[in-house]
Amino acid sequence: MIDAARIEAVIEVITQCEESWQKTAPTPADILIHHYFRDRRFIGSKDRAYIAELAYFIIRQRASLLWWSERYGQGGPRALCFAALMFQKKMSLSELQTHCSGERFCPEKLTPPEEQFARKLAGLSLAHPDMPAHVRCNVQEWMIPLLQTSLGEQWEEALSALGQEASVDLRTNTLLTTRESLLEALKGEGVAAEPTPLSPIGIRLTARTPIFATKAFKDGWFEMQDEGSQLVSLLLDVQPGQRVIDFCAGAGGKTLALAARMKNKGRILAWDTSERRLNQMPERLKRAHVDNVQRTHITSEVDPFIKRHKDTADAVLVDAPCSGTGTWRRNPDLKWRFSEKDLQEVVELQQNILRSASRLVKVKGHLLYVTCSLLQNENESQIEAFLSEAKKFRVVSEKKVWNNSPQPTIKQDGMYRFTPHEDGTDGFFAAMLQRIE
User: Fold this and answer.
1) How large is the greatest C-alpha to C-alpha distance in the chain, in angstroms?
2) What confidence category does residue 399 fall into, taking pLDDT thresholds of 50, 70 and 90?
3) With b meaning 16 or more CB within 10 Å and e meaning fewer, what string describes 397-428?
4) Residue 277, Cβ neighbours under 10 Å: how many?
5) Regarding the domain delimited by 231-435, which CATH topology (the fold level of the hierarchy) does it fall under?
6) pLDDT band at 413 (very low <50, low <70, confident <90, very high)
7) Pairing outcome for strands 428-435 and 222-224
8) 211/185 Cα distance (integer angstroms)
9) Contacting residues for 13 by C-beta, under 8 A, at least 6 apart
């Protein structure tokens, strides 16, 4: 594809995203982009990389790009794309005019106001001192007070880190190999990688590569999993032979990590309300050589099925539905498709899930509550509210659960928070609770 056709494709992708974000149930950007490419198989790999890179730049910097567009009387996906080309690609007005020829597969010719808009952006930086905080940080305005309260003085540093592209991390499947052997195998396949600094079973790619095409992946030697997600899985110190419940298992990322920790012995009950996500698990289990997992689709967090397992679990993992603020590096469109109403609903759901899941834990058993959120009302506040009602539980000291591995940042009373600006991971919160009677 010529660059003009690539630019037109970006405009089409951003148009689809903007339209989706107005719906009650918006589609994630990665799915929209995947479908866009699936329906246009003629688009080559280099063209896809260009289109995806520019589209994600626009999504990450959407508030700032909109600010510039509105400042000069422009709006819509074309203006966002043109501004991105000026700021990220350092494109000149004459280059932009050349690409916008109106020919087949190319953007329509620039209007006089669009030419004036591009002319005024030439040579400028994306950031501007007149930008309000939410524009400068590229989040919705209502989120700023919550983020400031939750992140303290480092809130802007944290948001800056969340605006960057995430690393690609792999979790070694210790059922089949060691981290050292996996590193050697990947090196033999031309994959540049290094050990992760915190997770003892993690590997971080130092260069982008088609990792799923490697023999190591096909042989089940690793799963793609952010280092922070690996760390919270390690916090739940499950043992071979135990009975463990993954209450919000999804497609099984943490389920697989727990199975390896248990050396494939004992039983993991993997539950989720999404049958579609649960159905993604069997292929992953087979590839990883895991056979101690039993999947169950539950209708809700209070499904009558749950009562049958009361007081039976040595450990329960609650990887709770949340705002996903900690995953903005990977899912930047979440910043624009998650509303205040969504937050209110998810906070209530988290409370209900905690109450329901706590019934499953036997005496001396553990309950690990995890979110990929950085918001206090989804994290510390939830644990405090739960403990005010559930007198049989207490927070376990981090020294008892970390097993001498490198420790992440401990924010409050043994509760963990991982952040990209401090720990180099996605944003996660974890609190380990133990039933004492």
Assistant:
1) 74
2) low
3) ebeebbeeeeebeebeebbbbbbbbebbbbbb
4) 15
5) Rossmann fold (3.40.50)
6) low
7) unpaired
8) 12
9) 32, 33, 36, 51, 55
What is the phi/psi pair of residue 232, to 5°?
A: -70, -30
Residue type for position 85: L
User: Does the structure show a pLDDT above 60 at 406?
Assistant: no
| Percentage with pLDDT > 90 across the chain | 90
Q: What is the CA 323 to chain-centroid distance, rounded?
A: 10
CA-based Rg of the chain, rounded to a whole angstrom? 23
Q: What are phi and psi of 238, to 5 degrees?
A: -75, 155
CA distance 271 to 245: 8
Which H or E run includes 231? helix 227-235
Encoded amino acid at 167, one letter:
S
How does pLDDT run across 45-77, given as a tens digit for each residue?
A: 999 999 999 999 999 999 999 999 999 999 999
Q: Which amino acid is residue 328, in one-letter code?
A: W
Q: Which structure tokens are listed for 64? A: 């700032």
CA dihedral sign, ordered 52, 47, 35, 16: positive
Q: Find tokens 């993604």 and name the residue.
A: 280
Note the pLDDT tens digit of each residue in 116-141: 999 999 999 999 999 999 999 999 99
d(CA 335, CA 331): 8
List the structure tokens of 261: 């920790």
Q: Identify whether the C-beta of residue 279 lies closer than 8 Å to the C-beta of residue 297.
A: no
Residue 412 banded pLDDT, cuts 50, 70, 90:
low
- Comparing 9-13, 88-92, 360-364, 414-418, the range with the smallest average pLDDT is 414-418
